[in-house]
Amino acid sequence: MHVSHLSLADFRSYARVEVPLDPGVTAFVGPNGQGKTNLVEAVGYLATLGSHRVASDAPLVRMGADRAIIRAAVVQGERQQLVELELNPGKANRARINRSSQVRPRDVLGIVRTVLFAPEDLALVKGDPGERRRFLDELITARSPRMAGVRSDYDRVLKQRNTLLKTAALARRHDGRRGAPPARADSSVGADLSTLDVWDQHLARAGAELLAQRLDLIAALRPLADKAYEQLAPGGGPLGLEYRGSAGEAMAAAANREELYGVLLAALGEARKNEIERGVTLVGPHRDDLLLKLGQLPAKGYASHGESWSYALALRLASYELLRSEGNEPVLVLDDVFAELDTRRRERLAELVAPGEQVLVTAAVDDDVPGVLTGARYAVSDGVVEKVDR
Ligand SMILES: Nc1ncnc2c1ncn2[C@@H]1O[C@H](COP(=O)(O)OP(=O)(O)OP(=O)(O)O)[C@@H](O)[C@H]1O
Ligand SMILES: [Mg+2]
Known about the structure:
By secondary structure, the chain is α/β, with parallel strands linked by helices. The chain contains 10 helices and 15 strands. Mean pLDDT is 93; it is low at 183-188.
């Protein structure tokens, strides 16, 4: 698929901008702080309902405006679709598909698919587990948009379960201070906690589905990531991608979703006492991590800066290959990545992405765009996006 037109209103630094796009390579070039990343960030938002730079929507709305609009015309084979998102920080976002507003924002997922490379990707390797969970879950959703519903069910159940546990934890502490015997403390929160079994089942149900998808994804990514790393940094691998689940060792033996459900439920049972003491859910996909190994060592804490970069790039390239092999050719977005790479890796990366149906590149100077990425060029200056004839 590709985006044939991008239109923004009150998004980031843009009051309004219209950008016609073609398949193939388009490079946005201009000095720092002129609005290049803002453009590709908007495309990424359509694909993930989130920004690769910030966790909330507020910074995406132009200072002084109260909502932002991202609109794109999307071409998939013979099919044309118009998608539109209205970002209302603090309120519900709204969506339209082909001008119909009978849709939720998450119904937009799957129309635009992207694989986005950015300097922020270094956090995939060096950052907290949350970065890697987001990587996995965004890719899961790109492979199978209905997973957005499962993710939001899981988040909702988790929130409610945490509220219940927190109330229970507070009540226990309160009773403890009054010097009540433990038996009484238990019974005073007993009414609340009796519903916990039901929440465990809901959490394990959605959690198992998410887990099954993550495990399937990792298995599919492994050979592709290895291959990509070998292409970027020959002889430097092999990579090891290992899922670290909060439900423990038993998870490895679970063959399917139903068995994962059982494993999660059992782990929740074991953790319950601890959870009630601490007032949070300690088991489930929201506590898991993806261990990234380079050779025998974890990349985090051991890999060099350059190795970490190659690792992050390899994960993105593997994502691209995976989506493509499954018939979901994504838009490739390369935000400011070439300037960060040495000449060899820069050229390898450029060669690997060049055949993409649509490749959007940002760079501060022309020379940072590798020669093999020939195509359209836009100059971005002070919020004006202008096609450059070459
Ligand atoms: N919500 C907002 N309202 C107004 N301006 C904003 C908003 N968010 C960001 N900006 C402005 O947008 C500019 C940054 O744009 P962007 O990140 O696209 O720059 P860039 O061209 O990619 O620069 P670089 O080459 O440094 O990466 C900054 O000047 C910033 O102040
Ligand atoms: Mg930028």
